[in-house]
DNA sequence: AATGAATGAGGATTCATTCAT
DNA sequence: GATGAATGAATCCTCATTCAT
C-alpha cells in the first residue's frame, strides 16, 4: 500500500467514478460525496485533488473525449483510403467502449454543461472542430466541394444518434447506429449534386 | 374584487417563465423562486398551482412539445404529396418559433430529464413515436421498405441538429439546419438499396 | 402571534443575539446557527433576513454604535458649557449600557473586523470622526489651538480603557474608567503649552 | 546528511510566519497551511514542532512580548532619572520595531485571544503588571501617591494608541503617538492634586 | 527530519416546500 | 387568490490534525 504517488491513482479513480455516477443519475446532480464514495475515498480527499466539483466534471469530460479520440485515431491508423477512414470513424464512435450507457449519458450531460461553463464549451468546440476536420478531409476526394456540408451533416447525425441512445431504455445498440450512419453516407456519396427532394 | 379564473393565466405565465429561465441558465438548475419572480408572483403561489417543481418542468415540457406539434400539424395541413409533407415537417422543426435559443436549450434539458423522471420519458417517447410515424408514412411511397430506417435516420439527424444548435454561440440558423436535413433526404431518396460506401 | 411584519422583530432579535454571542465567545468565531438559536429561529431564517453572516456582523456593529451615539447625544443635550459637555461624553462612554461586558467585547471584535471588511472600516472611521469632532469643539474654548491634540489623546484613552476592560476578568468598572479619563482631561486643561516632562 | 538542531530554526521561522500572516490577514483567521507555507515547510511539520495551532499563536504572542520587553529594558538601561525612564518606555513602545503594521495587528489580535485562551490571558496579565510596575516606580518620585493612577492612565493610553494605529490605513506614525503620550505625561506631572475639570 | 496522504467534523449557504394569515 | 414567514435537509468546501513512509 504505497503512501506516495497516489495522486494519479486517486485522480483516475475519481474521474471514472464521476462518469459512472453521472451515468447512473442521468444528470449532473451528483454530490461530491457520492463520487468520492464510489471512488473509495472521503469527499475531503476528492477536494484535495480536484479543487472543486466543477474541476472534477471537466476532468471527466476530458477523459471521455480522450478515450474517444484515442479510439478514433487507432481505427484511422488501420484504415486504407477515404471510404475506409469514414467507416472507421463511424465504427469507433459507436464502439462498445464509447457507446456504453453511462458514457453516453455522461457525454450528453457534459454537452449541456458547455452552455454554462466556458471551459466545457471549449472542449466541445475542440471536439467538433476535430470531427469536422477528420470527416471533411476523408470526404474531400469523394464529395468534392460538398465535403464540408456532408461532414457537418454526418457529425450532427452522430450526435443525434448519441442523444437518442441516451433516451432509449435497454442496452445500447451500436450496430444499428452504425448502420444508420453508413446509410446516410452511402446515400450522400452515391452521386452528383442533385439536391431537390 | 376577488380574482377568479386566474388559474390558467398563472399557469401559463409559470410555464413560459420556466422555459425562459431554463433557457437562460442553460440547465435545469433554476430555482422555483427565479421562475416565480419572472412570472410575477411569489414562489408560494407557484407551488399552489403546480404541486412541485417537477410538475412545473413537466408542464413546460408539454408546452414546448404542444407548440412543436401544432406547428407541424399546421404545416402538414397545407402540404400536398409526400415530398411536400416531409419538407413541411423539416421546415416546421426549424421554424423560428421552435428553434429559438431558449426553446432549444430547454428542449434538450427536458430531454435529459427523461433519464430521471418517468413522466418525462413518456413524453419523449410520445414525441419520438409521433415523429417516426409522421415521417414514416410520408416516406412509404418514396422509399418503400426502407421508409422506417430513413425516418429513424432523419429523426436522429433533426435531434442532432438541435443538439448542435444549443451549443453554438450566436443566433440560431434554422435555414442551415433545414438545408442539411433536406440534403439528407434528397440523398436517401435518390435511389435503391445500395449500401456499401 | 402575528404572521406579518416580522422582519424588524427578527432582525432586531438577530442583532442582539449576535452581540451576545460574540460577547460570550470573546471572538467573531460564532456560527450563524448559534446566533439564530439564541434569537429563537432557524439559521435559514437568519440568512433570509440578512444575506450573510457578514451582514449580521455589520448590522450588529451599527446597532452598538447607534446605541452609543444616542447615549452620547442624550447626555450632551443636558450639558451646560464645554466642561460639562466633555464630562457628559466621558460618562456616557462608560455608562452601564455601553460598558457592559458583552458590548465591550463585541465592540473590540468589530473594531478588528475593520481591518478586513471595508464597510466595518467605514463605520469605525465615522465613529472616530464624530468623536474627534465632538470632543474637539468642546475643547476649543478650553484648550485653544491644542484642542485637536487633546481630543485625539482623549479619544485614544477612551479606546484604550475599553480595550483594558475587555481583558479584565470580573464586572466592568465604569467609574474607574471615568475617573481616569477625567484625570487626563484635568491635567491637560490645567494650563499652557509646556510639554517637556 | 541528517539535519540536526533544526528545531529552533523551524520554530523561529514558524513564529515569525505566524505574526506576518496574522498581520496580513488582520485577524486570527489564518490557516496552519498558510503559516507553514510562508515558513517554508509543510503543515505537518508545523504540527510536529508545535502541537497545535493554538500553541503557535501562543508562541508568537510570547515572541512579540519578548521583543517588546527587550526593547523597553534596553532603553531603560540607558535612561537617567525618572523622567528619562518614562520617556524611554514610551519611545520604546512606539519604536519602529514594535510599532510595525503587522506587529500591531498581531498584538491586538492576541489581545483578544486572551478572552478565550487562559494562557493568553496570563501573558496579557504579565505584560500589564510589568508595565504598571515599571511606570509606577518611575512615577513615584514625580507623582507621589498618584503614581498608580497615572501609570494606569498612561498604560491605557498606550494601548489605545496601538488600537487606533491598527485601524488607520497607511504607515504607522510612531512619533505622533510618542507626542500624545508625552503630552499626557507632561500635563499630569505639571503639578498638584487639583482634579476638578 | 520531513511530507504527502487522508479524514472527521463543522459551517455557511441554498432551496423546495409548508403554513398561517 | 396570494404571500411572507419559516424550516429541514442538503451540499460544497475548509481545515486542524494524524499517520505511514
Describe what you observe in this structure.
The structure is a homotetramer of 197-residue chains. Chain A has 197 residues and is mainly alpha-helical. In chain A, 76% of the residues lie in helices and 0% in strands. The first copy, chain A, has nine helices and no strands. Chain A has helices spanning 6-25, 32-38, 43-49, 53-78, 81-93, 101-113, 118-143, 147-167, 174-190. Chain A is elongated. The termini of chain A are far apart. Mean pLDDT of chain A is 92; it is low at 192-197. The interface between C and D is large, with 51 and 51 residues. Chain A binds a DNA duplex (21 and 21 nucleotides) through residues 1-7, 10, 31-33, 41-45, 47-48, 51-53.
Task: Spell out the key features of this protein.
homotetramer, 9 helices, disordered C terminus, DNA-binding
Counting DSSP E segments of at least 2 residues, the number of strands of chain A comes to 0
How much of the sequence lies in strands of chain A comes to: under 5%
Shape type of chain A: elongated
Q: Count of DSSP helices of chain A?
A: 9
Supply Rg of chain A: 19 Å
Detail the poorly predicted runs of chain A.
192-197
Relative helix content of chain A: over 70%
> For the largest interface in this structure, which chains are involved and how many residues does each contribute?
C-D, 51 and 51 residues
* Structural class based on helices, strands and sheet pairing of chain A: mainly alpha
Oligomer: homotetramer
> What's the helix-strand series of chain A?
HHHHHHHHH
Distance between the termini of chain A: 66 Å
Question: Can you give the mean pLDDT of chain A?
Answer: 92
How would a crystallographer describe the biggest sheet of chain A? none
Amino acid at each position: 500500500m504505497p503512501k506516495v504517488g497516489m495522486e494519479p491513482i486517486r485522480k483516475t479513480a475519481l474521474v471514472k467514478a464521476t462518469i459512472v455516477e453521472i451515468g447512473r443519475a442521468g444528470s449532473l446532480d451528483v454530490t461530491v460525496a457520492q463520487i468520492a464514495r464510489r471512488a473509495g475515498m472521503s469527499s475531503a480527499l476528492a477536494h484535495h485533488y480536484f479543487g472543486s466539483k466543477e474541476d472534477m466534471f471537466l476532468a471527466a469530460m476530458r477523459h471521455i473525449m480522450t478515450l474517444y479520440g484515442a479510439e478514433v485515431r487507432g481505427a484511422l491508423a488501420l484504415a486504407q483510403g477515404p471510404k475506409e477512414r469514414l467507416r472507421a470513424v463511424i465504427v469507433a464512435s459507436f464502439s462498445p467502449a464509447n457507446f456504453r450507457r453511462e458514457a453516453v449519458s455522461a457525454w450528453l450531460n457534459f454537452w449541456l454543461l458547455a452552455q454554462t461553463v466556458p471551459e466545457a464549451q471549449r472542449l466541445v468546440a475542440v471536439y467538433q472542430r476535430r470531427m469536422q476536420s477528420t470527416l471533411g478531409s476523408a470526404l474531400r476526394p469523394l464529395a468534392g466541394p460538398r465535403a464540408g456540408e456532408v461532414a457537418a451533416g454526418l457529425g450532427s447525425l452522430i450526435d443525434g444518434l448519441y442523444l437518442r441512445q441516451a433516451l432509449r431504455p435497454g442496452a445500447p445498440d451500436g450496430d444499428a447506429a452504425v448502420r444508420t450512419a453508413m446509410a446516410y453516407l452511402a446515400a450522400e456519396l452515391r452521386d452528383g449534386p442533385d439536391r431537390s427532394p
